[in-house]
Amino acid sequence: MIEPVARLEAIRDDALSLADRLQRDMEAVAEARESANVDDEHDPEGSTIAYERSQLDAIRRSALERAGDASAALDRIGDGTFGRCERCGARIGGARLEARPTARLCIDCAR
Ligand SMILES: [Zn+2]
Q1: dksA C4-type zinc fingers: which residues (predicted)?
Q2: How does pLDDT run across 20-65, given as a tens digit for each residue?
Q3: How far is the CA of 103 from the centre of ligand 1 (A)?
């Protein structure tokens, strides 16, 4: 079976660098807010900034999650459990792994 190490490494590295960039963006937003001395609760611009920040954070979290999933899949390649459903132990279909190399569950368990 094909072990998509390079692909998973690319997914992980892309996600990590995205998370990194978002972290810096969030810091920039926080700094801009500080220097503007905006009151989040009462200033309409403040709530826009807070919203923007929470959006960035949500994207950052999902990027970190993706990086974690890719790392976990790489670990499974390392210990030989890659391609096995974590719940029922069945083989995960090749097409599913092709589309989603980070899949932990077979298509039946994922439903
Ligand atoms: Zn399963």
Answers
A1: 85-109
A2: 999 999 998 888 877 876 555 566 666 787 888 899 999 999 999 9
A3: 11
Q: How far is the CA of 92 from the centre of ligand 1 (A)?
A: 7
8 CA → ligand 1 middle, Å: 21
DSSP-assigned letters across all residues of 6-20:
HHHHHHHHHHHHHHH
To which H or E segment does residue 95 belong?
helix 94-99
Rounded to the nearest angstrom, the distance between the alpha carbon of 108 and the centre of ligand 1 is 6
Q: Cβ neighbours of residue 38 under 8 Å, at least 6 residues apart?
A: 45, 46, 49
**Residue in the block written with tokens 């996600």:** 15
Q: How far apart are CA 63 and CA 86, in angstroms?
A: 22
- Taken in order 59, 63, 68, 69, the sign of the CA dihedral is positive
What pLDDT score does 10 carry? 96
Instruction: Quote the tokens at residue 92.
Output: 């995960």
Q: Give the number of other CB atoms < 10 A from CB of residue 19.
A: 19
